[in-house]
Amino acid sequence: MAILAPLLAFLGRFVGKFLNMAFGWASVMVFGRVPQSKQLLVSAVALGSLVWVAVLVGVVVPALGTVLVAGLPKPGWIADSWIRSAMLILAIILPLAVGVAGLFLIAPEDRPKGLSIGAQILRGYPYAGVLAFVLLFLIVVAPVRKVRSLFKRWEDAHIPVMVKPGGYDQVADDVEAAIDRAGLPIERHAAPVVLELPSKLLAAVGGGSVKRLVPDKLLVLQNRQLEVTVHPTDVAISGDKLSVARSRAAIASTITFTAAHLTTSKEAQEVEDALREIADAGTADADFSPVDERIASLSVPHDEWEVLYRQRLQVERDLRRAAASGGGRDGKGGPLQVIGDAIQRLLN
Question: Which fold has domain 154-260?
Answer without folding.
Answer: TATA-Binding Protein (3.30.310)
